[in-house]
From TrEMBL:
Keywords: Amino-acid biosynthesis, Arginine biosynthesis, Cytoplasm, NADP, Oxidoreductase. It comes from the Bacteria. It is found in: Cytoplasm. This is N-acetyl-gamma-glutamyl-phosphate reductase. It is an enzyme of class 1 (oxidoreductase).
């Protein structure tokens, strides 16, 4: 059995991780920490887990975490990097669901997250955990930086046009119009997140600049192996009055070469062996409710004009966009079938 620790067990991502791992055939969750709820039974805070666990929240104790095979950090940015080096030295693998190990560019990290990175050596050897694109590196990794939810949709939405391809699209005119449920903002008290501020409302945020933008750009450069080709990418996130779910609409200008390509066939071939990426028939409409609670990402393509491609990408921001992808990465790191613990079907209605 794999001994697992979860640091930050009271947030939406932390409890989603716990929900998935409690039914994982090869996992024993040994430690679940909380800064504010130490000593409280998990089932008392999350009644959905009654009868499934007797765990109690505990204070963060690094010596205890060192006894785990892997530690997930479902914490605010800046926490995982304070402990990663010590844990790795003790032989414990680290999967961070915050941003500490997503950006290799330290200047960009410090600019967007407002803090100095305290373990750049570990960052340099860490692996970006976009499972479908970095599978072989993930298998050998000691530290994983789990991708952001929005960047997951953008990368998987664009990868077939960029990886091993050239000249199919204009990389300087990409527009990403993305929407997320309110759980993406985390489980914290905030005026902007309360019911009366979000019900019957729909708004854009981070229009002048969002911290996922540099992550998207850096990742697309790595996928395409082209530097400086995505500087003009526009990314605008929106908040939708639903609990979970994410839909990204990506607008792309096709080159003459791209217009001659069978793009539906390209996508279907690219993802033909991917268990958790579903390329739907052309002109389909992936819905967020079709992936609710499932580690599934669905893609559909439209050609409204010969030179235009519209890519629709839907996922559950808490599962494929966070906890589910983290479990995928753990499975790879420990040589387990990638789908273990992730076979759930989306909840509909």
């Amino acid at each position: 059995m794999i001994s697992v620790g979860i640091v930050g067990g009271t947030g939406y991502t932390g409890v989603e991780l716990l929900r998935l791992l409690l039914r994982h055939a090869h996992v024993q969750v040994s430690i679940l920490t909380s800064r504010t709820e130490a000593g409280k039974r998990v089932a008392d805070m999350f009644p959905s887990l009654r009868g499934h666990t007797e765990l109690e929240f505990s204070d963060l104790n690094v010596e205890q975490l060192k006894q785990c095979d892997v530690v997930f950090f479902a914490t605010p940015h800046g926490v995982a990097m304070q402990h990663a080096e010590e844990l790795v030295a003790a032989g414990t693998k680290v999967i961070d669901l915050a941003a500490d190990f997503r950006l290799q560019n330290l200047e960009q990290f410090e600019n967007w997250y407002g803090m100095q990175h305290v373990c750049p050596t570990v960052l340099k050897s860490s692996v970006y955990g976009l499972t479908e694109l970095n599978r072989e590196k993930i298998k050998q990794a000691e530290v994983i930086g789990n991708p952001g939810c929005y960047p997951t949709t953008v990368q998987l939405g664009l990868a077939p046009l960029l990886k091993g391809q050239s000249g199919l699209i204009n990389t300087q005119s990409i527009i990403v119009d993305a929407k997320s449920g309110v759980s993406g903002a985390g489980r914290k008290a905030s005026l902007g997140m309360i019911y009366t501020e979000n019900a019957d409302n729909f708004k854009a945020y981070g229009v002048a600049g969002h911290r996922h933008h540099p992550e998207i750009v850096e990742a697309l450069e790595n996928i395409s192996e082209q530097q400086g080709q995505f500087d003009q990418l526009i990314f605008v996130p929106h908040l939708v009055p639903m609990i979970r779910g994410m839909l990204s609409t990506i607008y792309v200008d096709l080159t003459e070469q791209g217009q001659q390509k069978d793009l539906q066939a390209l996508y279907e071939d690219f993802y033909k062996n991917e268990r958790f990426v579903d390329v739907m028939p052309a002109n389909s409409s992936p819905e967020t409710r079709s992936v609710r609670g499932a580690n599934e990402l669905r893609i559909a393509l439209y050609r409204p004009q010969p030179s235009k491609l519209v890519i629709l990408v839907a996922q559950d921001n808490l599962v494929k966009g966070a906890a589910g992808q983290a479990v995928q990465n753990m499975n790879l790191m420990f040589g387990i079938d990638e789908a273990t613990g992730l076979e759930g079907i989306g909840l509909l209605p």
